[in-house]
User: What shape does this take?
Amino acid sequence: MTKISKIINSVNNDIWGESPLSFYFSFNGFFNRLQFFGAIMTLNFFLKYLLALDIFLISLISLAIVFYAKIAVIQKRSRDLNMKGTFFILIFSLADPMNIYLQTMKSINLPVNFYIERSFGVVIGLYILVLLFLQFMPGKKEKNPELISPLLKHPNIYFAICVLISALGFGILKNL
Assistant: This one.
């Protein structure tokens, strides 16, 4: 191996860890600010690309995959800050489905519920503050790998509940 390829491998290991799948879908470990930024940007790019295909089933699956990965990313970054991250995860869990609802209703030219649209403004404001906090706060030197949000003691159950609530909520809200 040349010196340049060793440097590239070292940088890839620092950024991705052992594999991209464990990087995005594992709830173990820590994310520094650069890893958090890269993960959020990559997931958003991936989602926008798949949503642009405008195939309903692919859109639904990609929304669920990215939602799960973002919860893992937020948990890892929270752990780097020595926080459980429950508040951050709750804000994200509210903002993401509300955004999907609003975008979907506007794209198919259906009226949007007035109260949902106004409450979304508050939630998205909190979401932006959370993202800025997670992005710019330096990580703690002494990290506790045992910190985990009570919501994520069983992440698959939390994910299933969020998806179910989003699906039911979307169906109900669509008829308001």
Observations:
- Residues 65 and 106 are 23 Å apart (CA to CA).
- The mean pLDDT is 80.
